[in-house]
Design goal:
It is a single chain. By secondary structure, the protein is mainly beta. It has one domain: Jelly Rolls (Sandwich). The chain is about 5% helix and about 45% strand. The chain is built from one helix and twelve strands. A hairpin with a 2-residue loop joins β5 and β6. The longest helix has 6 residues. The protein is globular and about 40 Å long. The N terminus is likely disordered.
């Protein structure tokens, strides 16, 4: 076993740390907003557990700094034994998901990372992994990579359902800052 002091003195990379910025627990809103995001971290991470008020299996839209155009994304989706891919340039948001429905009280989980969000020299890029476990075709896993064509630092995030439905009460949206 190598003592930790030896690794540190040998120039081993520090382990990035995460700090909770804000958590929103819903009481059936249509939109979840994170405003005045501090510019003191290297990256951001959103952790989401959500379901819909409607009996659908939809996706979630992410908007950055209130922008309504200039987004693009590519995805790979696995549903049951089928795998598909897609993408969309020149969009009004980054679409990821799926998220659950109340017909069977399925909640889904998602992790979204936003890289180098405070820089003014690159456009914000995202990566997400979302999934829901159900029965048959309702079991779904989706990877999405996206971007927002703006070199402004990310100061706010907005999340809404693609069909405009409300998030189920007690859906949880937590925003973390990543140092390092």
């Amino acid at each position: 076993m190598i003592p930790l002091g030896i690794l540190a003195s040998a120039g081993a990379a520090p382990v990035p740390s995460m700090e909770l910025i804000q958590t929103v627990i819903t009481s059936t809103p249509t939109v979840v907003n994170f405003n005045s995001i501090p510019q003191t971290f290297r990256h951001l991470q959103l952790r989401i557990s959500t379901a819909l008020v409607q009996n659908n299996l939809n996706s979630i839209m992410l908007r950055i700094n209130g922008g309504t155009d200039g987004y693009g994304w590519a995805s790979v989706t696995a549903s049951g034994s089928a795998v598909s891919s897609g993408g969309a340039p020149n969009q009004t948001s980054i679409v990821f998901g799926p998220h659950g429905n109340t017909a069977t009280e399925w909640f889904s989980g998602a992790i979204i990372e936003i890289y180098d969000y405070a820089t003014t020299t690159r456009i914000p890029t995202t990566r997400s992994l979302a999934g829901i476990a159900g029965s048959g075709a309702s079991t779904n896993l989706r990877f999405v990579s996206g971007h927002f064509r703006s070199e402004n630092p990310v100061t706010s995030l907005s999340l809404t359902d693609t069909q405009g439905f409300n998030f189920l009460q007690n859906s949880r949206f937590s925003l973390y800052g990543i140092r390092g």
